[in-house]
Design brief:
Number of strands of chain B: 14
CATH superfamily of the largest domain in chain B: Thiamin diphosphate (ThDP)-binding fold, Pyr/PP domains
Strand order of the largest sheet of chain A: 1-2-3-7-6
Number of domains of chain A: 1
Order of helices and strands of chain A: HHEHHHEHEEEHEHEHHHH
Number of strands of chain A: 7
Shape of chain B: globular
CATH topology of chain A: Rossmann fold
CATH superfamily of chain A: Thiamin diphosphate (ThDP)-binding fold, Pyr/PP domains
Number of helices of chain A: 12
CATH topology of the largest domain in chain B: Rossmann fold
Largest sheet of chain B: 6 strands, parallel
Oligomer: heterodimer
Radius of gyration of chain A: 19 Å
Largest interface: A-B, 46 and 41 residues
Distance between the termini of chain A: 53 Å
Number of domains of chain B: 2
């Protein structure tokens, strides 16, 4: 049993590490201007994606946001196609037309990510409706930040999902920031109390670094969706280490302190299981090297691609 | 789908009902709208379909235009064919984020990984005091955006054929603007305009002629047919093209006609700036401005929000008289063209019968 637990933890740590090192490679490559796309890095928030995706099958459909690198990887998207997409190359998952903010991998249930806050939440509700109408046991998951909760369409989506008892899991990744504006300056209400008002079950995970707890909770909630229990709502508190967009740190910009991050570093699984991480580094590095090499070798799209797939 | 004997005449409303019925007969169709299952059933175009096919697929919606449009997109991405109905086009403005930022871009933005097949039905209001927010003709807004297919069916045949094509063959989002004043008009199958292309979304020829090209949209295609009939008896021959699909215009159709007539008049249901008339002019000017023997004439709504008072509304829209007069002036090259004009106002017989509230 202990061994099984260990294997599972290793898989989760590996995924978390892989995402972190991909993001760090992006930072490393960014000054070269090979990645000409705004990047919203997942660093600090990777365990949320890894935990949530563990119990999902490729048929379970996930809708996420422009901070989507972690979900793309955690859901099973291919690394070379990710890197080539960031490079704007033909070999990218969307042939370079998407870039960092619009990652997708439909073969593993990763639907298109949008740069417009909250805009994919109703897509999950609609996908859940389609699944329910045809009697499909698919689970549908939508990921959004605490800022999305202020958008009207979030309310419209919760209402419809609850009214029709749809198999959709709403997940709020709460990093308490919308760009640089803290939650307390934006919301006059309590997020959880508000969600409960729609007669949807709510669950809160205070530590977004607790991989096992997130994965177990996700498994339980997805099972509830599949058994026809109606929508579920989950909030996971987490922390964005990097600036909102771009490769840098911004602790000297005045809106937050480094001490805040250090609190989260204390439970960061990649530090907590530093010995496991050490064993995995070489494999992770060679996986990323291969992806970067693929991107470097992939040709740029051109005139022949400009007007394809418009309609 | 089985092909039954087609009736020889069908009202626009009956055509819409048939289109909705045929769509619902396919198991993956979902219809969303405020009032689809109520006693009025979107002016009778969805009446009874919820009972027949199930209210889990004929879905009464909360007042949440953006959310419902997003739900349609998500359903389309997961294998359904959604049809979203707005009983007034003006309400779709609440859903523009989903239509423009998501539905229109989903295929291209993800490099062809996804299709978003869906139909949005928008009803344009006119007459009986619809006022500024129940009367807008928003085709230019949508047609400006790559990724959207915008149609304005101007006959029962155009409805039946285009909606069947949208539901069964077209893999992208279609925005259809239906004109409320056509709902009670009956169209004879033998008098349907000729489709000038390979699909039901193609342009249509309403009447063949050699003196002037009249390109028109929606209810203005009906006005143009009446004007052309009137003028034919008075020695003016009009080539009337119902644009039907305003987002994808076959330039060859326009240029072939203008090449024969040398004169162009565009009659649209909306405002002129940045509108259909401007787009037709772009097509002609970029290809062969020398084909024109006279300056282009465009007709549309007055450059103001729609007034409610009948006396103002009567002069807000171009009518049969102004349209006929404009064509005659263009063909004869002078204001004093000497051609008798029809006395009746634009579609006056229809308007007189039309009693609100819608």
């Amino acid at each position: 049993m202990a061994n099984t637990h260990n294997e599972r933890l290793k898989r989760l740590i590996y995924q978390t590490l892989l995402i972190r090192r991909i993001e760090e490679r992006v930072i490393e490559l960014y000054p070269s201007d090979k990645i000409q796309s705004p990047v919203h890095l997942s660093i600090g928030q990777e365990p949320v994606a890894v935990g949530l995706c563990e119990p999902m099958t490729a048929r379970d459909v996930l809708f996420t946001t422009y901070r989507g690198h972690a979900y793309y990887v955690a859901k099973g998207g291919k690394l070379p196609e990710l890197m080539a997409e960031l490079y704007g190359r033909k070999g990218g998952v969307s042939g370079g037309k998407a870039g960092s903010m619009h990652l997708a991998a439909p073969e593993v249930g990763m639907m298109g990510s949008s740069a417009v806050v909250a805009s994919t939440i109703p897509h999950a509700v609609g996908a859940a409706l389609a699944a329910k109408v045809r009697g499909d046991k698919q689970a549908i998951i939508t990921i959004f930040g605490d800022g999305a909760i202020e958008e009207g369409v979030y309310h419209e989506s919760l209402n419809f999902a609850s009214l029709h008892k749809l198999p959709v899991l709403f997940v709020c990744e709460n990093n308490a920031l919308a760009v640089h504006t803290p939650l307390r300056e934006r919301q006059a209400f309590d997020i959880v109390t508000h969600a409960k008002a729609y007669n949807i079950n709510t669950t809160v995970i205070e530590d977004g670094n607790d991989l096992i707890k997130i994965a177990d909770t996700s498994a339980k909630l997805l099972e509830s969706l599949r058994s026809g229990g109606g929508p579920e709502w989950l909030m996971i508190k987490t922390y964005r280490y990097k600036e909102h967009v771009g490769p840098g740190d911004d602790f000297d910009s005045g809106y937050r302190s480094r001490a805040e991050m250090e609190k989260w570093l204390a439970t960061d699984p990649l530090y907590r299981w530093a010995d496991l991480v050490k064993e995995m580094e070489a494999d992770v590095k060679s996986e990323i090297d291969r992806a970067v090499a693929f991107a470097e070798a992939s040709p740029a799209p051109g005139l022949a691609d400009l007007l394809t797939d418009v309609e | 789908m089985t092909h039954q004997a087609q009736p020889t005449a069908l009202s626009y409303r009956e055509a819409l009902f048939k289109a909705m019925h045929d769509a619902m007969a396919l198991p993956n169709t979902l219809v969303f709208g405020q009032g689809v299952n109520d006693h009025k059933g979107i002016f009778g175009t969805t009446t009874g379909l919820g009972e027949k096919f199930g209210k889990n697929r004929m879905i009464e919606v909360p007042l949440a235009e953006e959310g419902v449009t997003g739900i349609c997109i998500g359903a389309a991405l997961n294998g359904a064919y959604p049809i979203n109905i707005h009983i007034r086009a003006d309400f779709v403005l609440l859903a523009m984020n989903q239509i423009i930022n998501l539905a229109a871009k989903y295929k291209y933005m993800f490099g062809g990984l996804f299709d978003v097949p869906m139909l949005v039905r928008l009803v344009i209001g006119r007459s009986w005091g619809q006022g500024a927010q129940h009367s807008q003709s928003l085709q230019s807004l949508f047609a400006h955006i790559p990724g959207l297919r915008v149609i304005m069916p101007a006959s029962s045949g155009a409805i039946v054929d285009s909606y069947a094509h949208a539901v069964q063959h077209h893999r992208g989002p279609v925005i259809s603007l239906e004109h409320r004043l056509m709902y009670d008009l009956t169209f004879e199958r033998d008098h349907e305009p000729t489709v000038l292309g390979k699909t039901p979304f193609s342009q249509r020829r309403v009447r063949k002629g050699n003196d002037v090209t009249v390109v028109s949209t929606s209810i203005m295609s009906l006005e143009a047919r009446r004007a052309a009939d009137w003028l034919a008896d008075r020695g003016v021959s009009c080539d009337v093209i119902d644009l039907h699909c305003v987002s994808h215009i076959d330039a060859n159709v326009i240029m072939e006609s203008v090449g024969r007539t040398g004169r162009l008049l565009v009659a649209d249901t909306s405002w002129q700036p940045y509108g259909v008339g401007a787009e037709i002019c772009r097509i002609v000017c970029e290809r062969d401005p020398g084909a024109l023997k006279a300056p282009v004439v465009t007709l549309g709504m007055a450059a103001a929000p729609c007034p409610t008072a009948k006396s103002l509304e009567d002069i807000y829209y171009p009518n049969l008289t102004t349209l006929t007069d404009s064509i005659a002036k263009l063909v004869r090259g002078k204001a004093d063209h000497g051609i008798e004009l029809p006395h009746e106002r634009s579609m006056a017989d229809v308007y007189k019968r039309f009693k609100g509230p819608f």
